[in-house]
Specification:
Helix content is 8%, strand content 42%. The protein is mostly beta strands and 156 residues long. It has a single domain (4-154), classed as OB fold (Dihydrolipoamide Acetyltransferase, E2P) (Beta Barrel), CATH 2.40.50. It has a six-stranded mixed beta sheet with strand order 8-1-2-11-10-9, with no helix packed on it. The chain has a five-stranded mixed beta sheet with strand order 3-6-7-5-4. InterPro entries: CheW, CheW-like_dom_sf, CheW-lke_dom.
């Protein structure tokens, strides 16, 4: 029997993406973000999350994805400290759809050349026998390597 992995499915730039659920601490609605002067473009700023100062990263510019979502649908996925070297970090995404359980047989590996610097762990596919719940027929969900994204683009 194939192993399964739980992922959080979310929208970004009108497309569906996923990250490992064990890296997500919580999902919060958008709250006011305080910009940080001279910060890189992908650093949206800081939020006060129940007394914890949390750095917020905007995934769309970081991954060169057009930002099509409105502020009302955006969410912040706060990452586990293990994913960020112990820092409080959240990432802005479009709407969060669901948590889905993915069978390894429904994950397609891609070439390094298409992986945008290795930020893609695989493509979750649907439509065949044993298709994943929460994935529409014919839909592809890009499974992001959030650990690599954090390691390569932040000082965490």
């Amino acid at each position: 029997m194939a192993e399964t992995i739980d992922v959080v499915k979310f929208e970004l730039g009108g497309e569906c993406y996923a990250l490992d659920i064990h890296l997500a601490r919580e999902i919060v609605e958008m709250i006011p973000i305080t910009p940080v002067p001279r910060a890189p473009a992908h650093i949206a700023g800081l939020i006060n999350l129940r007394g914890e100062v949390t750095t917020v990263i905007d995934l769309a510019p970081l991954l060169s994805i057009p930002d099509l979502e409105t502020e009302t649908t955006k969410k912040i996925i706060v990452l586990m400290p293990e994913a960020t070297g112990g820092a409080n970090v959240g990432v802005i995404v479009g709407d969060v759809h669901s948590v889905i359980q993915v069978s390894e047989k429904n994950v397609e590996q891609i070439d390094e050349g298409l992986g945008t610097d290795g930020f893609v762990k695989g493509i979750i596919k649907s439509g065949g026998e044993g298709a994943e719940k929460g994935v529409e027929k014919g839909e592809l969900v890009i499974w992001l390597d959030m650990l690599r994204i954090m390691k390569d683009n932040t000082k965490y």
